[in-house]
Each structure stands twice: as structure tokens, then as C-alpha cells.
Amino acid sequence: MPESDAGEVRAVSPWTVLVVDDDPEVHESTTFALRDVEILGRPLRLLHAYSAAESLAVLQRESQVAVILLDVVMETVSAGLDVIEEIRGRLGLQDTRIILRTGQPGFAPDERTVAAYDINDYRTKSELTRAKLFVALFTAIRAYDQLHQGLTQRHFLQGTLDLTSRLSSLPDLAHFARGLVAGLEQPLGVPVQAHVFEVPPGALPADLRLLAGPPEAAAAATLAGLSDAWCAARAWQCAASRGICMETNSLAAWIGLPGERGLVVVARAQKPVANVSLQLMEVLCRNLDLSASTVVLSEHLRLLAYFDPLLGLPNRTALLEELARRLPERPAVLALLDIDGFAGINDMFGDDCGDQLLQAFAARVRALVGDEAFLARTGSDQLALLTDGLPAGGPDLCELCREPFQVGQEPVRITAGIGLVQLFGGTMLPAQALQQASLALKRAKDQGRGGTAWFDADYEANARARMQLLQAFADAPTREQLSLAFQPQWDIASGRICGVEALLRWRDASGTMVPPDRFIPVIESAGLIVETGEWVLRTALQALLTLREAGWADLRMGVNVSVLQLQAGDFVGTVRQALADSGLPAQVLELEITESLAVTGEAQLLDTLHALKGLGVSLAIDDFGTGYSSLSYLDRMPVDRVKIDRSFTRGLRGDGRSNRIAELMVSIGHHLDMRVLAEGIETPEQAQALAALGCDEGQGYLRARPMPLVELQAWLRAQAGGPAA
């Protein structure tokens, strides 16, 4: 920051000294002894209190008492020390210096008291002649001045950090300016009236734009329109010098921005600003420089994130946010407009001509629909139009391409497909609205070039059904409609029950069981699977705890996990906390993931699986054989068990030919050091075939269907070797 040519102007204020003594003669002699005394270039201002209570009342209304001349013995022998305890404790006056005086030397405080209460000096009243009193006060005031300046500076620096931290998080310069006007009081220590002006490169006084100020300045758009001549003069002086101008009751400072731009803040107070040096004020301004530059950078990044630079339009991300804002408020129409054969036009005329065509197309759409509609670019040659409606008398989008577009020297005729969807608001998700418009656009494209189609009623009905299902499910946990069923798993060689799998069940408000394959995809798409999955995990662990307490201590609990759970938040922490709350060892929990997730997961998901394995839980791949498997990827996964899908178990007939795929799966699992469990075992023949293939464990209707916990306990008691009832 450039050095300021302006100096500091500070009013000379007196040092405040409080005399506390129950003897009026002491007050008179002290006043007489200190008449016309100056210390460090400033006069003294004496305040008087004649009791402990009166002294505390004075200190509560006086903010800057430098020294207290305090009688030790007043109403009681400890009155003076009691006052000091209040001063340092309840009143929190740490910088005020204390000189004890007494006419009874026998009541002198000991060393521990002097240290504990930070007492500057102790004198008998007979010692305090004018010369000795001056020396004692000079020492005490010098100490107070240093302490007070330190506290003021710490307050200023802390206020600077707090203010600039808040300002750095604001979205743009307009918010930054308003935040600065509202928060400048914090570091300065006094209420101020402030104006903030934006200064462009090479600005003249008329170019300074008012960004924020007091209510009376709201009508002024620029410096030239400001009625406050003093403020206008200070602002232009600061803009020209790019420095700091400090006076007793005011401040003008330059805040630098990238690109030779800047802000000027002019602040004025009704009483003197805290005693802050020019160097500290430069610290404030440098921090404001950094905060303002951060805001400008954030604003620029937001522009890149939400706007298309070629067309100067909002992009797909901005459209989704606009949909999220509008959908709950009112119905709307969303249209997607896509130029037919745009890739061929680019190939024929070149990318520059293609860019010009897009710009001309967007300009024509804007001219047709007006500024009230929300227009965005959502694809290479696709625009989205969000409007409150397209009434019969409104713009006809089919008219867009009736006239050719001028691209360079050539007129270019094009057609465009248009897909429209009526949005009814409510709980519809922005992505769903855009998907429906995309389906309508696909139908329009299927009709041929220049086709127009609305979202089909069947699609709309399906979407509404999904939303109704989603809304009904959202209330399921509070209505206790959710439950778990448990299906046993057994060791094929011995027949021993080794585990159970927890399966989510939902009985809706009408009492109807909703099939899992119907509601689980819906809650996954809406993100509700994360909260629901945690409920399943905790409920399953509580059920296992019940089983262990009843005597089945060797069972493991299998819980299915969605990819959204692994991606959302701290899933490892969720599992860790659920185990800690249940008190169960991690080894009894097995998390099941689908094969498609296992072989196509990202590195982050692989890290999550390793972290889960680090907790001690076991991992299983569900529906093994149904995905597009990469054995090299499976080999890197920390998986303990693979579960052969029921579709392969169903084909087992005991002959070698039909068993080859299952045999291959068992062999792969064992070669990867994993145990193998077959799902969907329904017949003894299937169980025998799996045993012959070396399959380790089984699960299916042959032994038991999924059942509630109470039924599971009764079933376990009925098994050979189960604990007694």
C-alpha cells in the first residue's frame, strides 16, 4: 500500500485519576498537591469517591480511569482490598493502575496480595508529598499508557481479523461494501457513519460509484450526486493519493483491487476514534485489500461456474439453481431448444461460424421471449428456456427458425427441436424437471427435424407416482412403517447358522407391503437412502445385540450399503459411531455392496472400503456374477465374501453342464481368498450341488424365508443346537 501523505491528528485528553478515601482532608490535600501537574504532556483530571461503594459506582460509568489512589482502610479494615477484588474481577479493569495509601502502616498488604491484584505501589499518607506523589503517578500512568495501548491494539487487531474474515466470505463487492459499512465499528471501537465507493482505473471524480452508505445517501449513485461535500472531498482525495487519511474523528482509506481498481472507504464518528497508529490502520487496510481481492476472485469463479462465456448466458448449473428456487413457488414451463444437425454445420462452416450461429440463435430466442424469461445454455447447441407460461397469445417458439440466420456472409437456414414440460412445482427436483424436458425433446427429435413435443402424459403420470411414493416414504420412519426382516445364512458343510442378512421392509399407511424393488430405487434417486441406510444399520445392530444376549453369540449381521451412502459425508464415521453406540465388536458386522459398485467404483470409494476394513468390519460383494466384472479390480478390494446371485443358483440341477458357471464363481472367489455364499437356495438338490462345488455358505427358502426378529428367535430355538427358550 502506498505511504500516506496525511498525518495523524489527535486531541490532547487528560489522564483520569480516581481518589478514593473516607477522609475529606486527603481529597483536598491531593487536589492541592496535583494542581497544574502534567504527565507525559497531558493534564490530570481528578475524580473523588468517599467510600468503597461510591468508588465502584464511579468506575462503572467512567471507561478510562488511568490510576486509582486507594485508601486501604475505610469502612472496614479490608474495604480497600475488597474494592481491588471488584476492580480486577467483576469490572475486569486490567489496565487501570492502583496505588494503595494508608494512614496505618500496620495494614500494609503482603507480597502475595500485591502480585495477585497487580498493585502498582503502596505508600503511607505521610509519604505522599507533591514530589513523591508525582513520581508515583508518573510511574503508574506510564505503565497504564503502555497497557492501555496494548489492549487497544489487541482489540483493534482482533476486530480487524473478525471483520475481514466475515467480509471474505461474501459473494460480491456490493455485499462486501455493505458489510464493511456495517462492521467497521468493530476494529475502530466507536460507532461510525461510513461510505464505500468503487474506483475504476483512471477514474475522474464523477466516475466514483457509491456501493454502500448510510440511508440518507441511498439516492446518490456516484460521488457527484452525493450531498455530503465533506465526504465527497475526502473520498476523491483518498482515491487520488491511494493512501490513508486519519483525523481525530474520521478515516479515509484506499482498498486495492486487482486490475488497478480499488475501493475508497470514508468513515466519520461522533467521538474520537480509538487511539490507533497509522501503522495499525495500514494493517487493517492491507487485510481489507486481501478480503476484497478474495471476494473479486470468488465473484469471478462464480461467473465461470454459472455462466457460459460464449453466449453470456447462465449455464446448466445456474438453471438447476433457478429451478430449485422457482419450483416451490409457482408453476412454470421448461423448454429445451436444440439445433438440428449442429455438428454438420460446424464441420461445413467451421467452429467460428458455429459460434456465431449459436450467438444469433440465442439473441433471437431472447428477442422473442423477452427479458423476464430465464434463458440458459445447457449443451453445445442446446438452450433452456424457463418461463411462467407460454399462453396461446404468447411467443411461438416454432417461429424461431422461419427466417435464415446471417453467419458471416452466408444466410444459414436451420431447424430446431423443441421439448416442453409443464412443471407443477411442489416437491419436484430440478434434475427431474430437466430430465422430463429432455424426454420431451427426444420425442420431438423422433418426429423429425423441427419437431416440437410436450412431455407425454404417461411419463408425467409415472413421475407423479414416483413423487407420491417418495412423499409417502418420507413420513415412513415417523409412522413406524419401516421394519427389518432377517434371513438366516448357514454353513453348507455343517448346517450351522452362521449369520443373518437384514432386509428393509415398508408397510405403507394403508397397510400394504411395498416391494423393495419398487421403493428402494426411488429413495436412492432422491437421496433418502443415506438417512434410511443409517436407520437400517443401527436397527440391525440392535437386533444382533438382542440375539447375542439371548445366547447366539456367533452370528454375524449382514447389512446392504448403497453407493450413495459411501459417497455421502463421513460414512466410515457413521459406522464407527453406530458400532460404538451398540457396544458390539466390529467383526460381527458385514457390509454388502453390489458387484457393479465394486468393479466400477472410483478410487475414493476404494479408499472408503479400506477404511471400513480398517475398523474391523467384513465386506461382501452381493449379486456376484451379474455385473461386468474386472477381476483385477476385485483382486484389489478388501472383500471377505462373495455372494453368488440367485439366478445362477436356480439353474443348478446336479449335472456337470449346468453347474459349470457356479463352479467357476466358487473357484474365482476361493482364488481371491474370499469365502463364497450362494443366495436363493430353494431345493435340497441345489444345496447338494453347491456342497459338491465347495461353496462355503448358503441362504434361501430351503432353510428359511426372511422373518421379523421375534420369529427369527423362535426359529433359531427350533434348530438343532440352538439355545433353549
TrEMBL record:
Q: Does the keyword Transmembrane helix apply?
A: no
Question: Per UniProt, which keywords does this protein have?
Answer: Phosphoprotein
In this chain the Response regulatory domain maps to 16-140
Q: PROSITE patterns in the record, alphabetically? A: EAL, GGDEF, RESPONSE_REGULATORY
Q: Where is the GGDEF domain?
A: 330-457
Query: Which InterPro entries does the entry link to?
Result: CheY-like_superfamily, Cyclic-di-GMP_PDE-like, DUF3369, EAL_dom, EAL_sf, GGDEF_dom, Nucleotide_cyclase, Rev_trsase/Diguanyl_cyclase
Mind telling me which SUPFAM superfamilies this protein's record contains? CheY-like, EAL domain-like, Nucleotide cyclase
4-aspartylphosphate found at:
71
Show the SMART domains listed in the entry: EAL, GGDEF
For the EAL domain, which residue ranges apply? Answer: 466-720
Its protein name is Bifunctional diguanylate cyclase/phosphodiesterase
Q: Which organism is this protein's natural source?
A: Pelomonas margarita
